[in-house]
Amino acid sequence: MNFNKNQTVLFNKNLNSLDNPILKEKLKELSITHYKLILGKDSLDINLKDTKNHTFLYQDAIKELDIMLKTYNEKYLLYPVLYFYGFGNGILFKALLKNKYHKHLVIFEKELEIIKIMLHLLDFSQELKENRLLILDVNSLEFQDYYDLCSTSPFFEFSRTYFLELSSDYYEKDQEDILNLNNNLIKNFKNAILRNGNDSKDALQGIEQLIYNLPVLLTHPPYQNLLKQRENLSDTAIIVSTGPSLTKQLNTLKQYANKATIIVADSAYPILAKHDIKPDYVLSLERILLTSKFFDNDFKEFDKDIIFIATHLTHPQTIKNLKKNHRNFMLSYRKTHFIEYLKTNYFGNLVEGHSVANIAYGLAVFLKHKNIIFIGQDLAYSEKGKSHSSGYTYLTEAGKKGEAYKKDFGKYTTLAYGGKGFVESSFAWNLFRYDLEKHIFETNKLELCITYNCTEGGARIEGAIEKPFKELCETLLKEDLKKPFPKVEALNKDKQDELLLKSYYKIYKSIRHCQDFSQELLKSYNLILESFSNLNLISNLNEGKEILDYLIQEIDKIKTKLEDGKNMLDLYEILGPILTQFELNLARIYVLNPKTLEDSYNKSLLWIKEHIKFFNMVYKHIKAQEKALIENITPLENELKKRNLEKYIRKINNAK
Questions:
Q1: What pLDDT digit, counting tens, does each position of 44-74 carry?
Q2: CA dihedral in degrees (248, 251, 253, 256; nearest 10)?
Q3: pTM of the predicted model as reported, rounded to 2 decimal places
Q4: Is residue 190 domain-shared with residue 286, that is, in the same domain?
Q5: How far apart are alpha carbons 445 and 440 in whole angstroms?
Q6: Percent composition of the chain: helix, strand, coil (DSSP 3-state, to 5)
Q7: How many CB atoms lie within 10 A of CB 345?
Q8: Residue 489 DSSP one-character state
Q9: Are residues 233 and 182 in the same domain?
Q10: In 3-state terms, what secondary structure has residue 237?
Q11: Count of H helices and E strands in the chain?
Q12: Is there a smaller number of Cβ atoms within 10 Å at the N or the C end of the chain?
């Protein structure tokens, strides 16, 4: 297809505004071979003929445009983000972007020839430059593309208003691609919501255990010291998890254990102890009581020189079990709002991720290993339906029978190790895998290390090179390491005293903040509730609208205070999950397009009603945090008293 000089200039102008280097290069080099441009008398009548199957982009371009615009201007006028499969002739998007409420249109296209043709005909340079028009190549979408789109603003905030529209019936031919794309987007939006927190009970448990564990955290060796003192001591790290395939790797692991850094999940620790394979690090992520059972044992000399690393949120019984047998351990935090508020900078930061393998991978990267090997990282059931390796200490009865997570069978199939066929997985394992793939993608991009998946079973982990474990050990592991690695010391007593006192002051300050803010919130809540209740006595729509406008102003005052990140930092831990869920649900009300005064009135009514329920929840959550802080500060007080620092406790308690 030939284009005139003006069209070529326009194409280059559009291309220069496209913020996607890979797509830009593809479009530059692309030849147009199977589409024929058909122009009608009307400037809006732009069509294409697919010369492969002799079909058309539109049956009637102008009529179909009118129908789509009418639908979108009526139903979706206030949607900040809209998603389309197929670029079509682009005129629909040009028209929709005249609407100031549409902040972004996300267009997925498989046939890049269509995009190239239309960028010669229509000027999208401004829309592309401002990222109001986002064009994504369906053929090259990767994990990171989905992750970035679904977890950033405003796409995340309006994830519950997401739907995917075909720009024309022509694209029905791509049904399989459309379903796959839609499933990936829904899945990644769900994962983004989970990453932002969806359980305030979980957050409250985290606060309780953090405060209770603070004296232990601050008086044991800091994680940052570990990273500084032990970096570059080993080229290769082996991360050991307890998938069904682990058993077959144990002999090889034992043979090469002294030639690599061995980092194991807490669940794998008793298995390795049984086979006399000493790890260098044992990591524990969960905050539940059951996890403490992995350390309810006494392996005597075997535990010498192992560093046990648990999170700041670990269950107190885990700490008791670690102390009981004199293990060398430390607590490290994962960045949370309350940790940020406390400013205990020496003791983090564990990488993000929902599985212990993720924090193990982070440790291996931070210690600057050049090669990182996964074994036992199946993230799937075995062919016999087993969820864990034989020897896994606390497998449930259902797990022993191969029935663990049976409800997930058939729902979460994923590509198998080796890329041949599929394996049964679970929602949780898929989530763990996505996190791992994200970390691997980042390390590959920065060329920090090479990651190998030597599980030889289970699910494929994208970005990791698949190799037989024994073969890779023979290639990489030639010499013994100088073990044990150097000892990691705690901070000196004066520094510990300082951090203990600062933390006590911060917690006490947060208790007062809970009391003051909850009282202020309750007063405003009662006033809003009273005015809202009086609306039932008013029959005049205009008079009712005045009250609604007043209530919305009062609501905005409270929300402004809630959104003050600096002053509300200590409360965001407990409020984060409900704030996230509330805003996601509120987006559904925001996009409602009222067509009459009564519609507008009812939308405002619904808006206020939802906020009243929300403020009631906020109040209860803040009171719950106040109670948690008061009930769990005792170990910190006792530690300060043991160090003869009572006078500072009194001074903090008496301060106004």
A1: 999 999 999 999 999 999 999 999 999 999 9
A2: -150
A3: 0.85
A4: no
A5: 8
A6: 55, 10, 30
A7: 13
A8: P
A9: no
A10: strand
A11: 24, 17
A12: C
